[in-house]
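User: I'm preparing a small set of examples for a lab meeting where we compare how different chains pack in three dimensions. I only have the primary sequence for this one, and I'd like the structure in token form so I can line it up with the others. Please keep the answer compact; I'll paste it straight into my notes.
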Amino acid sequence: MIQFIAILILAAILYMLQRFIYMKFWARALEVDIHFEGKEIFEGERGRLVETITNAKRLPLPMIKCKFLTSRSLMFDNSTVNQNTDNYYRNDVFTLGSRERLTRTISFKAAKRGLYNINSFELVGTDMFFTLQTVLKQKMYDEIYVLPRPFNTSEIKNSLQWINGEIKSKCHLIEDPFEFRGIREYQPYDSMKSINWKATAKTGDLRVNMRDFTSQKVVRIFLNLEDNGIIKRTEACEAAIKVAAGLVKNFTSEDMEFALYSNGIDILSKQPIRIKRSRGKEHEHEIYRALARIDLEAETTEMSKLFGDTIAAGDGTMCDYHISVNSYDEYQRLLGSYDSMHMSFLWLYVTSGRELIGISSSLTTRTIPIVSWGGNVNGEIDIDKQVG
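Assistant: Understood. Below is the structure token output for the 388-residue chain.
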């Protein structure tokens, strides 16, 4: 009996000792790294989240729970999402031996465009008998851009032919110093730099080089996400953002210079989107990221109030694309003002049918319906092949 009591006392002492040790030392020399593998992917693509936990001390850890929140729009494999919240609560369990590092890679599918982040995590430790639970909360930050998946409908392809025609016929033409077209007689308005001295010496009369002309390809995109309907058409607005991304993709491939203006609110700056004209892949991805950051829950402003002066400041070197899910009277009046400004535009109207109901007859020749069913646009670009 005495021996049994002694064993119980010893067991109690050992239990309390290990409990004290784990309570005091479990989080010491314990490092956690959580990051997205890659900083941007396109809607519908798969990404990976990497969790690394390092136990750099001799004390083994029988169980560590790593908990964090992220968006449910990142659909992790073998996970259950609560449809009543925008967040997804991740709870991963690790067992770490003495001086051991474990890395776990979790795959997910990006279901929706946006800017997603993880800004903190929580560790829950226990003792050898799983009777103790201690919690450690830490701040961290990592983010991933889910870019809008560009669409390239037949209507968009046809509109590109229109824009090329407008650029050739109406946009300001500038002389290209690298395109030689011939020689002609000197005129009083010619620059002395244009004189061809060899031809002048041969003929005895002043002769000048003729240069060919090149078009300045400058396009502005105006993305109108104002939705004044009783029922908010979020899916249609998402489709309009995809159409804008499709235009950007095509403009980059054509080496055009383009800008983007939208009354959609940037979730970071809390301001409407304004990206000045430029060209190239970096500019393309700058706009993709801006489109990803648009918060459709934020209140928008009428395009005429927000960008009326910007539109009026255009000139003959610019052709404008308007993308909208709405056709309210004030917006149509804004588009109707192009005639008085002698400027070119095309309206890509994201709608549920091909009939232009409620559209002014003066605008129908400049309006192309982009049919959207539940936010989907017919003609998705193959990202794997076309998006670099």
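A couple of notes for your slides: Residues 171-176, 379-388 have pLDDT under 50 and may be disordered. The first strand starts at residue 30 and ends at 37.

User: Perfect, thanks.
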